[in-house]
Amino acid sequence: MNKYLKKAAALVAVAGIALTATACSSSATLVNYKGGKITQDEYYKELKSSQAGKTTLANMIIYRALKQQYGKKVSQKEVNKEYNNYKKQYGSQFEAALEQNGYTTSSFKKNLETNLLTVAALKDIKKISAKQEQKAWKSYQPKVTVAHILVSKEDTAKDIIKQLKSGTSFSDLAKKYSTDSATKNKGGKLPSFDSTDTTLDSDFKTAAFKLKNGEYTTTPVKTQSGYEIIKMIKHPSKGKFADHKKQIDEQIYQSMEQNTSTMQSVIRTVLKRADVSIKDNDLKNVLSSYMSTSSTTTTNTAN
């Protein structure tokens, strides 16, 4: 799965089968073929005995419980905004990316909505303590502005650093060597970011935060993209905790979202509040993996 679509599905994954049949008996014909037919009863029996069918039912229950409890906190406007962000990011490749990952426009939007609902549940159920905030504050870095030069080879990066030391301007070298087409003609300048940013490589951020205004990295920084030379343009003082509380709380919640046991606990609480009653005895245990306190199963929810 593409890393960006994978990120959108980190909390939830939309199942590809709709469990629309009911538990009541029905001999209505779904399919005719030469010499026979498939009835609703037969289809339902087959579907509910499969793991895919059971997972889909669990996902339907979880989505509807989340929607009932937190639907007022997630608007369609927010869902559309998330959707349009991904669409803009992929450009002309967006439709192909959806298809490759098994999504339709509708199912991907439902996925994004469920992500937002799950985060709303997390923030309601798991409250942040002052101790957590103070721990995060120790490592927090305010927004900095840097420029960078990205190249594919370490030797090239070392040569650029030599040219910087000899007095060649960082901006000129970025235009000449950087493989980042989005920033090279801007002297390598990147949008401002703080330590809560999840789009940048962690090694990149660590190296950047060590720099003072005007300084650049004197050894190449190896990242997933290649080799980087980073220059600090603006590194403000840390300031007061109160000025950054909102960003720090978001950082803590983002960390919680990546913790399987924490999110399992959130979904378990949502389901207990929903007081779910499953009428078909063969499907009584479809939520067992979510309700067990010892389970480490990754949370999956859908429509």
TrEMBL record:
Q: Which UniProt keywords apply?
A: Cell membrane, Isomerase, Lipoprotein, Membrane, Palmitate, Rotamase, Signal
Cite the EC number. Answer: 5.2.1.8
Q: Which family does it belong to?
A: Belongs to the PrsA family.
Q: What GO CC terms are in its UniProt record?
A: plasma membrane
Signal peptide bounds: 1-23
Xref: SUPFAM superfamilies: FKBP-like (SSF54534), Triger factor/SurA peptide-binding domain-like (SSF109998)
Organism annotation? Lactobacillus psittaci DSM 15354
GO BP of this protein: protein folding
What does it do?
A: Plays a major role in protein secretion by helping the post-translocational extracellular folding of several secreted proteins.
Q: Where in the cell is it found?
A: Cell membrane
State the name under which the record lists this protein.
Foldase protein PrsA
- Which residue ranges does the record assign to the PpiC domain? 141-234
Q: Which reaction does it catalyse?
A: [protein]-peptidylproline (omega=180) = [protein]-peptidylproline (omega=0)
* PROSITE patterns per UniProt: PPIC_PPIASE_2, PROKAR_LIPOPROTEIN
